[in-house]
Amino acid sequence: MVKKLFKHELDAYTRTVVPMYLVLLGVALIGRFVQFFESESDAYMILFGSSTVVFIISAIACVVLTTFFCIKRFYSNLFSYEGYLSLTLPVTSTQHILVKNTVAVLAEIATLLMIFVSTCVFTLGDVCVELFKASGYLTKVFYQTFGGQSTLIIIEAIVAVLLGVAGSMMVFYACIAIGQRAKKNRVGAAIGVYFIYYLIYQAIGTFFIILFTVFYDAWNLEQFMQYLTNHPDVSMHLYLGLFTFIGLVLYIVGFIVTKRTMDRKLNLE
Amino acid sequence: MKNLKRFIAIVAVLTMMCMLLCSCNELDDMKKAQAFWTEENSIDTITMSNGDKYIKLDKRNDIMLDDSNWRMITVTTEDVPTLLSDEFGISLSVSDDNNFIYGYINENVDMIFSKKTINGYAGTKTGDIFITAEDSMDVTDEIGEVLYCKEDIYPEISKSIKEGVEYTHYGYDYYTFDEATLTDNVVSYKLSDNEKKVIDTILKEVKPNHNDENLYNHNYLLTINNLSDNEIFGKYVCEIWISADKSTYYLAKYFEGVDTYDTYEVPDKYQDDLEKMTEDVVKLLDVHHTQKVFM
């Protein structure tokens, strides 16, 4: 049943994001076509500038719309009238949440891949070749800097990014789950919950920054920072580990809040 | 319908192929501005993107470098892509006549070509270094002025440096501003034997005013240099200044070590000669202040 749920989710996403990707590709193609007429004239500069701005805005819009659709899909499928159908399926709430979260992460990855393909189309020709050369060279420099630790760092980075995206999505789900407990204006309540979460997140971050600044000398942190500067591999492991940890915490907390709400405090429209 | 689809597919493929062939002007400019260290682990020669080679001179001696309209290049190793040349290269300047490349680089070759940990700090290909505060003085000592000349004039230049240069005439350069292209043009003037004699006579016979602070109440006109036949080598002779009311000329000799001038008021009998010599430059005083040209 989970497989079917997965397939159904993918179909729903495909119906929405694929047209968006086609539009992005179209904008990239138009932008590349404009460059056919490259010259020093003001008219070309304005046209090229405009096409570049439109392309960048389209790429950003793709990411924003994908995220928006992921959140909307979760809400409408489980907490609106569609929930009456979805929650009668022989699938646990855990499976619902995990499937939706996994497909949302895949959609975000697909969007980023599409932006990459569109950028290649937009810069097709010498510029694209140079971009690939630059990426290859930076990879070489990366391997020279980190040596044998490079592969481990790449794996850590991938895990950190995936957990970061999944964790962020879980936070949105938790905010929706808490918000739907409100009697009126559930969407507004969910947005309010998100703002409170954001304030708490910023407050915790600021607290640690103040702690760091106040005890910088007392805890001999200058030596520690110098050590990190002279050992980029250690500092990279530390930063990635920290991001992974934060992503994991958000994921677990978001999951627990969402699941408990769905199991005990569900309040469908 | 099938033929129409086939036609559209062919047009699409052809368009994509044309796009592959299209270049970008800005990228082409970046490629032209990228040069390469010819040999590995050596800063002795540079090869430009058009194939011209430049060889490092051990001494600069009295080579005159006209500092107008220099263009910047970035020198990298051959494996550095064009888009990263600014990040991983060293910026140098190429003279307008394309004969010289000039700049300042960290001459520790290990710093430029490899990443190595030396005395507690790491070097990178750019010459930028991550250093501890204690090591900073050692590193800045390594930075030096470098001058490269084009391969085809290198034998002549290095022979002159080794055997000595014969200075044959006096001359000066000044700027004119082209309003159409918004660029500065350098105009050269070769002094005649008689004009040279006038300058030498004034410097010899007139009593100088040492450390003359009044000089800055006058207007600078030009700098006279003693030049070799090919005008590549030159020695500073003196400067010509004119009073604010343009009635009196002065010669001035600058002493770099103490940052002072000795001034020589041009006697009346030579004022006409100076006037003729500097006619075009004085006219420019009303348009813009003249600037020193040689470096």
What would you note in describing this structure?
The complex is a heterodimer of chains A (269) and B (295). Chain A contains 9 helices and no strands. Chain A is mainly α and 269 residues long. The model of chain A has no long low-confidence stretch (mean pLDDT 89). Chain B is α+β, with helices and mostly antiparallel strands. Chain B contains 9 helices and 17 strands. In chain B, strand 1 and strand 2 (45-47) form a beta hairpin. Mean pLDDT of chain B is 78; it is low at 115-141 and 289-295. The chains are: A mainly alpha (269), B alpha+beta (295).
**Ranges of chain A with pLDDT <50 over ≥5 residues?**
none
Report the major sheet of chain A.
none
Number of DSSP-assigned strands of chain B:
17
Shape of chain B: elongated
Mean pLDDT of chain B: 78
Give the largest chain-chain interface (CB within 8 Å): A-B, 23 and 23 residues
Structural class of chain A: mainly alpha
Compute the CA-based radius of gyration of chain B.
Answer: 26 Å
Enumerate how many helices of chain A there are, as a single number: 9
Q: How far apart, in Å, are the first and last alpha carbons of chain B?
A: 73 Å
Overall pLDDT confidence of chain A: 89
How far do the termini of chain A sit from each other? 25 Å
User: What fraction, in percent, of the residue positions of chain B are helical?
Assistant: 25-40%
Largest sheet of chain B: 7 strands, mixed, barrel
Overall body shape of chain A:
globular
Q: Which structural class do you get from the secondary structure elements of chain B?
A: alpha+beta
Number of helices of chain B: 9
Strand order of the largest sheet of chain B: 1-2-3-10-6-5-4
Strand content of chain B: 25-35%
Helix proportion range of chain A: over 70%
